[in-house]
Amino acid sequence: MERRAFSKYSWIDFVFSVIGVCTFLVDWGSDVWVAAEFYCRGDLFWFAVLVGLMALSSVVVQTFSWFWLEYDRELPGFGARSGAGAVLFGDRVALSCLLHVLQLGFLCRHISAIRQGFRVWWRKEEGSEYAVYLTHDLSMLRLIETFCESAPQLTLMIYVMLRTNKARTVQFVSIAASTTSIAWMVVDYHRSLRSFLPDKAKQGWGSSLIYFLWNLLLIAPRVAAVALFASVLPGYMPAHFLMLWFVFVLWAWRQRTYFMDSVGGEWLYRATVGLIWYFSWFNVAEGRTRGRSLIYHSFITADALILLATWWCYRDPVQTESYALALIITLPLTYLLGLLFKTLYYCCFHPKLWRPLARDPGPPVDLPDAEVSVRDISIQDSALSSQLLNRRMACHAKNFYSEQSAIRQTDDANRAESARL
Asked: Which spans are transmembrane here (predicted)?
């Protein structure tokens, strides 16, 4: 099989980096504005919850960023390659630590990625591998921030709207925009992972659209079901979350994840995965994924139905008369439609289905995603670039697309054995 060279930094990567820092600042500013509005209206409880979510998300993201900097400092020549990001990635450990304590490490990563990308794309300087390295880390950090902050905040917004029984047009627009943003971030992360695929099967716009739709149709009813349950039994909401989160963390532990390079970092990763699983499926371990995905969606579907049934029993019939029946019918159907779109993606729109056939394609496989192995990833200018391979994301891609990898490796072994005989 012809191996794929490591991705080169392009103008699209630069545009995404600029958009990333802009959305980060806009998101931060909107959070402060909403928190200030809660405070001015005297809603101190919701103000505290919102500020708590912002603080928790920021601490988690900064902690991941700091762990990765500590790991990367062990790479040969990494500090010398940091260039524009020397303050954050070089030898100034104390200043780097201070930036993360002040919750500015994530922002500095964005700025560093923009400066390095500008030097590579516009000035045609060297360092493309390093620029790509930064964008891969940012895609993962943005995904973590999305599910640590944006998804809980979206749930809070819907909850507040239900509790007050007041809804303005701007609130509906904000909820729709937030839900769309969460689904798009999942797509962006998925596209970033595909750069580690050893083949040339890139995700086109049609494939990305279907991938976006099924994530949107699965995440939106999940968030709505949680918010509806919280609107009638707010005191039980923390217990529900902690119970499911604990189960998910144990499940991640049982799958023997190995994303981080330290024990403490790995448990932080598992705790974060548990939070992500509360809202959306996220593959984290090597092996066949179809069974795990089926278990997850069955569990989440049952949980969502229980949440909706509880809301229906405890709701105020007068206040919810205008929308209760529509929600109780629409949300399960939307989730079912999302599962159908997911099936459609893997059956008809997966990039592998549109990839030109190799010389020895082997038997057709209709299982999720494509094969990835870290040893299959070749990098241009290996003397330098191999030091800058983002092995965190490469290993994560290996896990994310692992099912078909095992099958392809088995097929290759069988064909080799047949040829030998």
From this structure: 9-26, 46-69, 170-189, 209-230, 237-255, 267-285, 294-312, 324-345
| Spatial separation of the C-alpha atoms in residues 421 and 417, rounded to whole Å | 6
CA 270 to chain CA centroid, nearest Å: 14
Ramachandran class of 9: left when φ > 0, alpha when ψ lies in -120 to 50, beta otherwise: beta
Judge contact between 324 and 242, C-beta under 8 A.
Answer: no
Q: How far apart are CA 131 and CA 114, in angstroms?
A: 9
Half-sphere exposure of 211 (CA within 13 A, CB side): 21
H or E element in which residue 351 lies: none
Residue length of the chain: 421
> How many Å apart are CA 293 and CA 301, to the nearest integer?
12
- The two structure tokens encoding residue 87: 């303050």
What would the two tokens of residue 39 be? 């405070």
CA pair distance 313, 294, nearest whole angstrom: 29
pTM summary value: 0.77
Q: Which helix (H) or strand (E) holds 256?
A: none
More confident: 245 or 43: 245
Q: Tell me: the pLDDT tens digits for 238-255?
A: 999 999 999 999 999 988
Q: Closest by alpha carbon to 289, among 407, 199, 201, 146?
A: 407
Report whether 188 contacts 203 (CB < 8 A). Answer: no
Q: What is the pLDDT of residues 88-138, one digit of tens each?
A: 554 466 777 788 888 888 888 878 778 877 777 776 666 666 677 777 778
- What DSSP string describes 386-403? GGG--HHHHHHHHHHTHH
Q: In the prediction, which pLDDT does 360 show?
A: 45
The per-residue pLDDT for range 285-321, each reduced to its tens digit, is: 766 677 888 999 999 999 999 999 999 999 989 888 8
The three-point CA angle 58-59-63 to 5° equals 115
**Residue at 179: amino acid letter:** T
Angle at which helix 44-72 crosses helix 93-101, to 10 degrees, equals 160
CB within 8 A of 17, min separation 6: which ones? Answer: 110, 113, 114, 117, 135, 138
In terms of Cβ atoms closer than 10 Å to its own Cβ (0-12, 13-18, 19+), residue 331 is buried
- The DSSP output letter for 146 is I
